[in-house]
């Protein structure tokens, strides 16, 4: 598939690091067709109720096969329109959103620091967190936050971040990794049944 990296970057307001830590999982609702690939917020809210905040403050879009994010318009979503391409068709894209802090805080786990950085990196994966802290995190988180142990927010994309996703957790690879911690946002139903949050 051809990559479409030709769209403009849209920003409405400056967003500080402290408010950019509530990041959803990736969504891929549409497949490229004769018109292009449309990952529009209204459609995603309809097909994924409760998994995306209604007013995101940032959006990332990337092709399914490439790990590099680009920011587009969070209020409407992302669209690659075939008619706007120079003789190539749009690739298959996925998007994820950054939500306001208060959306994540409705059902947020404690911070977890399961691993310490080693020669291989720092592995704060969801699967290993579920094993070490049973019943304290849901199996299907809807957002993730990552910070250093000192509290500095860590945002994607990053050169050393092999994984940054609510359903997988966070992985930083190579010897330059700091010590990281993660926390997850879970569906409200998890908080209603959990005594640990």
UniProtKB/TrEMBL annotation:
<protein>
    <recommendedName>
        <fullName>WxxW domain-containing protein</fullName>
    </recommendedName>
</protein>
<dbReference type="GO" id="GO:0005576">
    <property type="term" value="C:extracellular region"/>
</dbReference>
<dbReference type="InterPro" id="IPR039675">
    <property type="entry name" value="CILP1/CILP2"/>
</dbReference>
<keyword id="KW-0732">Signal</keyword>
<feature type="domain" description="WxxW">
    <location>
        <begin position="109"/>
        <end position="186"/>
    </location>
</feature>
<feature type="domain" description="WxxW">
    <location>
        <begin position="24"/>
        <end position="99"/>
    </location>
</feature>
<keyword id="KW-0964">Secreted</keyword>
<feature type="signal peptide">
    <location>
        <begin position="1"/>
        <end position="20"/>
    </location>
</feature>
<dbReference type="Pfam" id="PF13330">
    <property type="entry name" value="Mucin2_WxxW"/>
</dbReference>
<keyword id="KW-0325">Glycoprotein</keyword>
<dbReference type="InterPro" id="IPR025155">
    <property type="entry name" value="WxxW_domain"/>
</dbReference>
């Amino acid at each position: 598939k051809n990559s479409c990296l030709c769209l403009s970057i849209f920003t409405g307001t400056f967003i500080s690091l402290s408010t950019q830590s509530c990041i959803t999982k990736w969504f891929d609702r549409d497949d490229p067709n004769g018109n292009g690939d449309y990952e529009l917020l209204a459609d995603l809210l309809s097909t994924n109720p409760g998994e995306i905040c209604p007013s995101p403050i940032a959006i990332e879009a990337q092709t399914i096969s490439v790990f590099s994010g680009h920011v587009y318009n969070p209020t409407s979503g992302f669209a690659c329109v075939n008619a706007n391409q120079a003789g190539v068709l749009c690739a298959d894209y996925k998007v994820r959103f950054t939500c306001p802090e208060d959306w994540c805080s409705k059902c947020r786990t404690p911070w977890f620091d399961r691993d310490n950085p080693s020669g291989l990196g720092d592995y704060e994966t969801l699967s290993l967190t579920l094993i070490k802290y049973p019943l304290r995190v849901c199996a299907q988180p809807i957002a993730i936050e990552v910070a250093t142990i000192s509290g500095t927010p860590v945002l994607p994309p990053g050169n050393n971040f092999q994984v940054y996703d609510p359903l997988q957790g966070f992985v930083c690879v190579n010897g330059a990794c700091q010590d990281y911690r993660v926390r997850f946002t879970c569906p409200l139903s998890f908080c209603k049944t959990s005594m640990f949050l």
